[in-house]
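Q: My labmate handed me this sequence with no annotations at all. I'd like to see what the chain might look like in three dimensions before we decide whether it's worth expressing. Could you predict it?
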Amino acid sequence: MKNLLLYIAAGVSLALASCSRDLGDYDYKEVPDPVVMGIQDSVFQAMVGDSLIIEPVVKLPSGTNKYSIKWKVDISDEMRSIEFEGKTLRFVFGIGSNRYPGLAVLTDSTTGMKYYYKFSIQGNTEFTRGTLILSASADKSHFSFVKEDGTVQADLYKAMNEEDIPAGGRQLLPIASQNYNSGAVSSYWITYASGAVQLDVNTLVRKRFLKDFFFNPPPTFDNGNYKVLSDGSMMAIMNGQVYFGAYETAPFATYFGFFGAPVNGRYNIGPEIIDDITGGAWVFMLGFDKEKKAFVRFSGRSFMDTTYKMLDSAFNPKNLGMSLIHMERFSDDNIYAFVDSAGLKVKELNIGVEFMGGDVFRAKSQRVSPVGPYLKPNTVWAKGIERDFYFSSGDKVYRYNPVNDEIRALAYDFGGKEVSMIKVLNNGDLMLAGTEGTVHYLDISTGRNGAFIKKIEGIPGSPKDVVIRN
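A: Here is what I predict for the chain of 470 residues:
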């Protein structure tokens, strides 16, 4: 037994001695990463139907050419991916005009090390860039497309679908989710007085009518304004009621965005509604009930009617006794409503609300509006940036500042044609104005007062809405 213990002790001593002598015998060298150019964080433009070629430059630390690359491109809206292998990615691009995230995995065959590089592919079609125009004639509406070179494809919807859009064109809405597919446009909706139609983003061919976007559609539609929410669903006023699209599933799911039942309650609002919907969450909406002649409140997807506390007494918002012409929100404390007092005088109301965590309605002021004599049955409106309004009156467009009562006509001459549309873009520096057959681009930046930039001609009917895709 003593001899056994001596052998064990000797063995341990030798092991410790060898470990001690082995310290410092290893020389570790950090293997540098390869130099790769032309992949990481790049966005590659691809035209549908053309070959996409990605050919990176790779320099390995060993100076050899012994490496391989595996490529993966995610197609999220189809819940699949496509994969390739080779030093160059080369394939005929045919997966649509969205943005697709990709990953390249480079393997150094000498060391076995793997390196990962992210990139994106932006798919394009002939309709990815250009200007989309919705216009209206007496008995039908029109959808046209203007290429980047200025070529006008007039009445394109009819040419592609062999049918007219019904009369009363209202809005042209690009559908995109801020939280999905890098915010790429996934489709378009065209709304008109009695319905709507959805267009494919790649081909602009009709996908479906509004009735096919309902779980249980009403028998008829009387449209007000629609709004695209940040998640890619829509809020809409139809038949005097408020509808929200389904948002509980992923944006590429079959029934995402479908309309169900309206917000429950007894009300008849429209065609306008103002809201404080930000970042996909809705805080409040304020509408005007056409039958009650009252301002009514919505909280989220619930109708709250006139259950708010009234402060100030310039007017009675629960029994106004007048009809709404137009309203806009600049902030919760600066909401303006223009109302018609039985065709006698146009009144201008200044409103403040505390609906975020409260239930206060402030009837701040009421007066005869200086814009009253200018308003026509077909007047169109647009909100400026700094608490000002633009509105049309026949063949003129005016800027109105309610703070100092200044009403100034834009300098541009529309040639006697009635203005059918006003849109303010580019942070208040650009105006698009429509007259029969033409969209006018005007500079409304400080000191320019509607200076001419360019115009698009050859549009059928009178423009109602424009979307610019760059």
